[in-house]
Amino acid sequence: MEQLHLSPLPSLAGSLTLPGSKSISNRTLLLAALAHGNTRVNGLLDADDIRYMLEALATLGVNIQPAGSDRDFLVEGTGGRFPVAEAALFLGNAGTAFRPLTAALALSGGHYTLEGVARMHERPIGDLVDALRLAGATIRYLGNEGYPPLAIAPGSDSGEREISVRGTVSSQFLTALLMALPLTGREYTVVVEGELISRPYIDITLNLMKRFGLVVEDLGGQRFRIPVGHYRSPEVIQVEGDASSASYFLAAGALGKGPVRVNGVGRNSIQGDVKFAEALALMGADIRMGDDWIEASGTGRLNPIDADMNAIPDAAMTLAVAALAASGTTTLRNIASWRVKETDRLAAMATELRKLGATVEEGGDFISITPPEALTPGVAIDTYDDHRMAMCFSLVSLLGVPVTINDPKCVAKTFPDYFEALAGLAG
Predict the structure, then answer these.
(1) What is the pLDDT at residue 414?
(2) How many other C-beta atoms are found inside a 10 Å radius of the C-beta of residue 395?
(3) In the sheet that 330-333 helps form, which strands lie side by side, from edge to edge?
(4) Rg, C-alpha atoms of the chain
(5) Distance (Å, rounded) from C-alpha 134 to C-alpha 216?
(6) From CA 391, how far away is CA 334, in angstroms rounded?
């Protein structure tokens, strides 16, 4: 197994421009593909999850061409109907591609199969499939009930017009429904059952749908009315920097004294993960923010917090490692969704934090971290083929001990140049 050995970093400072947001990149690509007219997408993320979406759309007959710089593309809209009506798609472990494409293809009247890596086949999709079946879709499980891989066939036009979906497992299920149901040309109401996790990601979806000409009516956060209409290209759309990726560098600014500035997200961002900066400020970091930048600095020591992380579960992982620099026990709550991500992140985080000497209590939907008097040096961190595990635990190098990251290239899922960017801030 490849390993990356990180020496202790006494300080960290500087600025960087973030890569594009994964969530915005894949949503924008799909909406542009389904729209009437052509869309220039600027600043697309260059990472594995986006490549899977690009490859899938190309297989489905969507014409996508480079436009100028390496990360700008021109997407030729299909007007709501994919040119290829029969295809087999492989989508790796890209949830932001797998879930929305499942919904769009299930309502497209073709024959499709969707599969991914072994872990993707362990990530639940039953709630989305159940909701799509209510809308008239025909979907079969090719393996275990409730999980990919899937086979899709033409469905019925006689489905229900009020569709319910559980909100407690993944917000991507609701996102997929909201984006795909307009393809039917009928009005729908989508009802969320239970607490909706990661609500800020739904706000990203609604914002982008509006940019493409469809305004969904939010009826109190648990009901959404989707009007009759079709997607229209905004002609040009700029992808924001990735707010989840910003969390590592902002935490690095607080732990490495900083200041560290990230460019590409700020107070005008449509991404909920910018709220990570607020959580870091509660821990004692000095945070400054502009329209499209955030800056963090600190003393290297943090305050413990007890906080609900329902809105920012991905960025909350960074706080779990930052808790090693706190003066007491930090508890992160309402993070059950960690269990069904790229790995079981609750179990993985608890295991790796204990290697470093921390006392960890792991519950069904929370984690409590009490740092040791001294961290165990030279620990080899297992990353579980999970990009966020690798990036989070790189921050241990700012806590006075060396650390080894196993399988560091797993960061290619969203940030292939992450370790180079971190090293750049170390001078």
Answers:
(1) 93
(2) 26
(3) 306-308, 330-333, 366-370, 359-362
(4) 21
(5) 20
(6) 22
The single-letter code of the amino acid at 162 is: E
Q: What is the pLDDT of residue 128?
A: 98
Note the pLDDT of residue 68: 81
Note the residue count of the chain. 427
Angle at 293 between CA 292 and CA 299, to 5 degrees: 165
Tokens, residue 159: 């489905």
Q: Tokens for 107, please give them.
A: 């309502």
Tokens for 188, please give them: 């729908």
Q: Is 36 strand, coil or helix?
A: strand
Most distant pair of Cα atoms in the chain: their distance: 64
Helices 243-255 and 313-322: crossing angle, nearest 10°?
10
Instruction: Map tokens 């436009």 to a residue.
Output: 67
Query: Which residues have a Cβ under 8 Å from the Cβ of 136 and sit 6 or more positions away?
Result: 155, 156, 157, 158, 159, 160
Q: What is the pLDDT of residue 360?
A: 98
If DSSP codes are grouped into helix, strand and coil, which group holds residue 172?
Answer: helix
Give the closest residue to 325 by CA, choosing from 365, 297, 284, 287: 284
Residues of the chain falling short of pLDDT 50? none
The Cα 86–Cα 290 span in angstroms is 47
Residue 27's pLDDT is what? Answer: 98
Tokens at 193, concatenated: 């059952």
In angstroms, the CA 266 to CA 106 distance is: 36
CA distance 296 to 248: 11
Tokens of 224: 């959404």
The closest alpha carbon to 423, from 249, 288, 284, 295, belongs to 249
Return the closest-CA partner of residue 52 out of 95, 91, 104, 106. 91
Task: Indicate the SS3 state at residue 180.
Answer: helix
- Give the separation between CA 383 and CA 368, rounded to whole angstroms: 20
What pLDDT does residue 423 have? 95
Contact 375, 369 (CB under 8 A): no
Show which residues are catalytic.
Answer: 314
Residues 221-276: tens digit of each pLDDT: 999 999 999 999 999 999 999 999 999 999 999 999 999 999 999 999 999 999 99
Please state, in angstroms and rounded to a whole number, the distance separating the CA atoms of residues 200 and 269.
11
